[in-house]
Write a structure and sequence with these properties.
The protein is an alpha+beta fold and 483 residues long. The chain has three domains: 13-53 and 207-239; 57-202, no CATH class; 257-473, no CATH class. It has eleven helices and 16 strands. A hairpin with a 4-residue loop joins strand 7 and strand 8. The longest helix is centred in the first third of the chain and has 33 residues, at 18-50.
Length: 483
């Protein structure tokens, strides 16, 4: 009868079935949502407590608004309809509060009125509608409507819900009501050419309660996510008796290794010429799952860091899970555009999968230096810079005046693309390019394991294992050996 394999330290390997993986994925998603809710709730409370003026208003910066026409008009502001059941409380004095406009510049008129009445007053009048406003830096966009002068000064109209008119600074305060409203800025005498410095303020009395609600929801999601991650990632193996050959087990565990992160890649000799053109689509389910698994990897690494600081040990269940994420990542890399070394579809698994041509193993460290988790990210900066060049990257950030997505191809992607084009036309994958690409991948995975606190051995600055490695295994990394 076959027996279940055990490690040299008397543990059965953790089994990562679909249920445990889904628990970790959904737990990571819940924890990510919880972190976002906590950040939003904290931001709302911060703004409520620190950003109000002496009158209790939250204000936009004062910025210039100008038009060569007769009027500046906001987009229609849709508020809760009076007959909307149960929603009119949003407009109560204790929830939204008052809105305030402050304008400086000439003899100015500020008005808030029903959109239908404002449109009737400005029908046939040349005016600009404010379509978009951006801050940091400030910019305003308008849409011009052609026409002539208005029939009379705005202050003579009787439909306004709130107005302010006069020279110098004018302040309009309005308690919002249900309906559709428009804000209008004109010269008091309805003359052409408007230039004002304007700020908008709101009491927003709901902000504190919103912040508290977001914090409570964030705690619930974070605790729920942490619970799911714990249930999924906890070690399912049990302690068993050590192997009979205890001396051999001890030698295997303590014998020196070339490097504790072992990465193997065996090139498929019968690669399809064209399948790589579709692998971006075929691999998409893996990328989606791995996005969540890497969130879990990050969160669990933080937990492991705390454990190492206090105990000097990496929790075995977390170690097994994080090794599984790196294995899954390497199999996907090897299948897709970081190697294109096989056409075998990678399994959805955190396990070893010994029959798959891409394998990764990391020797479990019995003891780790307690203080190193505090500085490993700093020590790894030279490697991280190089890895960024090797594998490329993507992100979201400020580009010019806007926030946009960005990305760049790494050296590995360029090498593999060249190899794929050669494969397309010749049916042959150049082994030199394969060795180079796998070497760069191996470098990146060593750094990932080091930054993930899974070893204290500083990654070497080389593609392979160096002179001590047999020449015939330069595309593989030997696992720990016995002396």
């Amino acid at each position: 009868m076959a027996t279940e394999p055990t490690t040299a330290h008397g543990h059965r390997p953790s089994r990562w079935g679909p249920g445990r993986i889904l628990l970790v994925i959904f737990g990571s998603l819940a924890a990510l949502i919880g972190a976002g809710l906590l950040a939003a709730g904290g931001g709302a409370l911060w703004a409520d407590q620190t950003q109000r003026d002496d009158d209790g208003y939250l204000n936009t910066p004062t910025e210039p608004f100008a038009s060569s026409s007769y009027a500046l008009v906001s987009k229609p502001i849709d508020l809760v309809e009076a007959d909307t059941s149960g929603a009119d409380w949003l407009l109560s004095e204790n929830v939204l509060g008052d809105l305030r406009l402050r304008a400086t510049g000439g003899d100015v008129f500020l008005g808030v009125g029903p959109t239908s009445e404002v449109e009737a007053y400005l029908r046939g009048v040349e005016h600009d509608e404010l379509t978009d406003v951006s801050y940091g830096p400030f910019s305003a966009e308008y849409r011009r409507t052609a026409g002539t002068a208005p029939a009379g000064p705005p202050g003579e109209q009787g439909f306004w819900a709130a107005t302010a008119v006069g020279p110098d600074e004018q302040t309009l305060t309005w308690n919002p009501e249900s309906g559709q409203w428009s804000v209008v800025i004109m010269n008091a005498d309805a003359s052409k050419g408007i230039a004002v410095d304007l700020s908008v303020g709101a009491e927003a009395k709901f902000l504190a309660w919103l912040g508290i609600a977001l914090l409570v929801a964030g705690v619930v999601f974070l605790l729920g996510g942490a619970g799911m991650i714990f249930l999924g990632a906890r070690h399912s193996g049990t302690l068993v008796a050590a192997p009979e050959d205890q001396a051999l087990a001890t030698r295997t565990a303590t014998s020196p290794t070339v490097y504790p992160v072992a990465v193997t890649g065996v090139l498929d000799q019968n690669l399809s010429r064209w399948l790589w053109l579709l692998k971006w689509l075929l691999a998409l389910p893996h990328y989606i799952v791995l996005a969540f698994l890497w969130v879990a990897f990050t969160l669990l690494t933080v937990v492991a860091a705390v454990a190492i600081l206090f105990t000097g040990r990496y929790p075995r269940s977390i170690f097994d899970f994080n090794v599984g994420v790196l294995r899954w990542t390497w199999r996907l890399w090897f299948y897709s555009y970081w190697a294109n070394g096989t056409d075998r579809y990678p399994p959805f698994s955190l396990g070893e999968e010994p029959d798959y041509p891409a394998r990764l193993e990391i020797a479990y460290p019995e003891r780790l230096t307690r203080w190193l988790p505090l500085v490993k990210w700093l020590l790894a900066i030279p490697h991280l810079i190089l890895v960024g060049v090797f594998v490329g990257g993507w992100g979201w950030g400020p580009i010019g005046d806007d926030w946009r997505g960005w990305g760049f191809a790494g050296l590995v992607g360029i090498l593999v693309l060249i190899a794929c084009v050669i494969l397309l036309f010749t049916g042959r994958y150049p082994p030199t390019l394969f060795d180079f690409a796998v070497g760069l991948d191996r470098w990146a995975l060593r750094v990932a394991a080091y930054v993930g606190l899974m070893t204290d051995d500083y990654p070497p600055f080389r593609l392979d294992l160096g002179p001590s490695e047999p020449k015939e295994t330069r595309s593989d990394v030997a696992l720990p050996v016995t002396q």
